[in-house]
Predict the 3D structure of the following.
Amino acid sequence: MLRHQLSEFFSAVTFADNKIFRSLKLILFSPGGFSKNYAEGIRVKYMKPISVFFLANLIYFLFPFINTFTTSLELQISAFPYSDWAEKKVELYLLEADVSMKEFATMYNIKTTELSKVALILFALTFTVFSKCIHIGSKRNLWVDNFTVSLEFLTFFLIFGLEVLILLMYPFVKFFDFGFLYTDSGLIPLGFVVTAFFFIKAERKFFEFGKARTGINVVLNIASLVFTLSIYRGLLFLITFYSIIL
């Protein structure tokens, strides 16, 4: 079985006694298991949730195949519900400061890449709020429980969804002209599939819900991902914009 072979290969090349790779292996191959172990006090063998999240964050920003979390100025002022408002704020500043759009875009894109590495924690916190509401009725519905799962999910999403799968799709994009796979029409369904896969496992393993509640919660988690990403991008625009003009 491919999954088993990949798991065995992962173990062979990363050494079983290494906390980093033991943590990543558990997150990638058993979603929800990392959070469950942490909640039950099984922590010595693994990294802390916040540490493994920042590791995934580092890996993502070192190899940014797509700019899901490092949204450029061009996208900020053209692709989202708040884009008209954002564009007006930028244009007003350009008139007052006598700066060209090209110059400002260069400054903005450099600054937003720097800030997004730290601002991604806002994504985890926002997703935690949605998670707390979704998991009413679970015996593991403390804020710390939902924050831990949010960190595990983002680690899974950053590494598996935005690094491994995107890299695996590269030959199709490069050699078979499947460029649409790297556009929203290709990446949004991929994000939904990755989120669904993670929470199908995590809802039962960590929150211990049955099949029916798991199905409902998977849909709610996908919707939460969409809302959280919109909120995060809006906040990132504001943080970046004001860090430049102030």
Observations:
- Residues 12-16 have pLDDT under 50 and may be disordered.
